[in-house]
Design brief:
This protein has 454 residues and is an alpha/beta fold. The protein folds into two domains: 221 residues, Alpha-Beta Complex (Spore Coat Polysaccharide Biosynthesis Protein SpsA, Chain A), CATH 3.90.550; 169 residues, 3 Solenoid (UDP N-Acetylglucosamine Acyltransferase, domain 1). The protein is built from nine helices and 33 strands. The strands form five sheets. It has a 19-stranded parallel beta sheet that branches. Strand 8 and strand 9 form a beta hairpin. The termini are far apart.
């Protein structure tokens, strides 16, 4: 292999005890996807020779999340240096640059990693390139000591820093690009004579300098270097991801009326000239065509919305909702596992599940498809141009033919033929003058004096 090849070691064995969760830390979601998935997607966008992920015992779920990339198990959690040494066999014989990254810092960009790799390849071809940043609160971070020639002299942990070193704003982000050739020897010499009794990967900088090798620094932005160690950190990272997704949506031709209140999934796809109102939430698996209007307070997940459709306000599209061109889904309407064909309208207060609503059909307010009998789901088919009156219950399995009309307030348990009228209302009864007599009786009782006294 040529020395211009690049491999990556991703450290994902941390327990994440501060998350207070049974779920491995790196599987906690950001924009609907495990945080490690964001990092793996970033690495997939680079020309890497191989990727290996270091996991802990009983982390089969993490191994599944990163498949088909191989994993190695760090049986004892003895620090970052030990974790990288555990992975070294997987990159044995590799002659190039090894990136070391952290699965709980998932927002790093391809551009930043590329700059690190390029710095490693440029003269004087430093053995170690460390990613630095300038955090708003540098307190807990190791400081990067840079010489007059711009090379990295040392990494000093915050607790060991002198007052002068503590005033340095440039801090260690942890990510490194390392020459693969000296890496095994450097790792073998790391000791654990420190307060935690761990092998620190940062020690290789001093060792490389002692061997006469050069070390360098590349700076990144604080927002992309957030480390997630707590639920509060997770919320900060989610905010960054959402800002990126909102910016990408608007750059792609969507209008967001109030961007800060719109929440996207990592895989949300919006067409051009889409308008999204305030307080809209997109769950995973949503694709929206051109010229769609999504009004305020909608929740959409696992749904497809075709060109020119109008959704909401206050609509809920659940997985399997397939809304065709020019269809209207109105306020307080819920669609689940149903196809709403071209130009159909379901404008008010309805539930349509496990159904087909034909082209240009109109479903009235208060209509529900009774799709579940307590044991199984059943299908409702509403034909093209059919009209379903308000407050109708369609008890599945049932078919309403093309052009049929169902009278308001009906409970439909059998199929309705095309162009037929179906209704199941009881006959209306009217008693002349009853309301007036009733009011008189009630008024008389209210005016009568109470019996007894005091």
């Amino acid at each position: 292999m040529t020395k211009d090849k690049t491999a990556a070691i991703v450290l994902a064995a941390g327990l994440g005890t501060r998350m207070e969760s049974r779920l491995p830390k790196v599987l906690h979601p950001l924009a609907g996807r495990p945080m490690i998935g964001h990092l793996m997607e970033t690495l997939a966008g680079m020309d890497l020779e191989r990727i290996v992920v270091v996991v802990g015992d009983d982390m089969e779920a993490v191994a599944e999340a990163v498949a088909p990339h191989p994993t190695v198990v760090q049986k004892e959690r003895l620090g970052t240096g030990h974790a990288v040494r555990t992975a070294c066999e997987a990159v044995d014989g590799f002659d190039g640059t090894v990136l070391v990254l952290y699965a709980d810092a998932p927002l790093i960009s391809v551009e930043t990693l590329t700059r690190m790799i390029e710095a490693r390849r440029r003269a004087p071809r430093p053995a170690v390139v460390v990613l630095g940043f300038r955090p708003s609160d540098p307190g807990p971070y190791g400081r990067l000591i840079v010489g007059a020639d711009g090379t990295l002299q040392a990494i000093v942990e915050a607790g060991d820093a002198t007052p002068g070193q503590g005033a340095i704003a440039l801090c260690n982000a942890g990510v490194m690009a390392i020459d693969a050739r000296p890496l095994p020897g450097l790792l073998a010499r790391i000791g654990r004579d420190n307060a935690k009794g761990e092998y620190y990967l940062t020690d290789i900088v001093a060792m490389a300098r002692g061997d006469g090798l050069t070390c360098a620094v590349v700076e990144g932005d604080e927002a992309e270097l957030i480390g997630v160690n707590s639920r509060a950190d997770l919320a900060r990272a989610e905010a960054v991801v959402q800002q990126r997704l909102r910016a990408a949506a608007m750059a792609g031709g969507a209008t967001l009326a109030d961007p800060e209140t719109v929440y996207f999934s990592h895989d949300t796809r919006l067409g051009r000239d889409v308008t999204v109102g305030p307080h809209v939430v997109f769950g995973p698996g949503v694709a929206v065509g051109d010229d769609v209007e999504i009004r305020a307070f909608c929740h959409i997940e696992g749904a497809r919305i075709a060109t020119g459709a109008r959704i909401g306000p206050f609509a809920r599209l659940r997985p399997g909702a397939d809304i065709a061109a020019e269809a209207h889904i109105g306020n307080f309407v819920e669609i689940k596992n149903a196809t709403v064909e071209t130009g159909a309208k379901i404008n008010h207060l309805a539930y349509v599940g496990d159904s087909r609503v034909g082209a240009k059909a109109n479903v009235g307010a208060g209509t529900i498809t009774c799709n579940y009998d307590g044991f199984a789901k059943h299908h409702t088919d509403i034909g093209a141009g059919a009209f379903i009156g308000s407050n109708t219950a369609l008890v599945a399995p049932v078919t309403v033919g093309d052009g049929a009309i169902v009278g308001a307030g009906s409970v439909i348990t059998g199929d309705v033929a095309a162009d037929a009228l179906a209704l199941t209302r009881a006959d209306q009864e009217e008693l002349k003058g009853w309301a007036k007599r009733f009011r008189g009786r009630r008024s008389g009782r209210k005016a009568a004096p109470a019996k007894g006294g005091g």
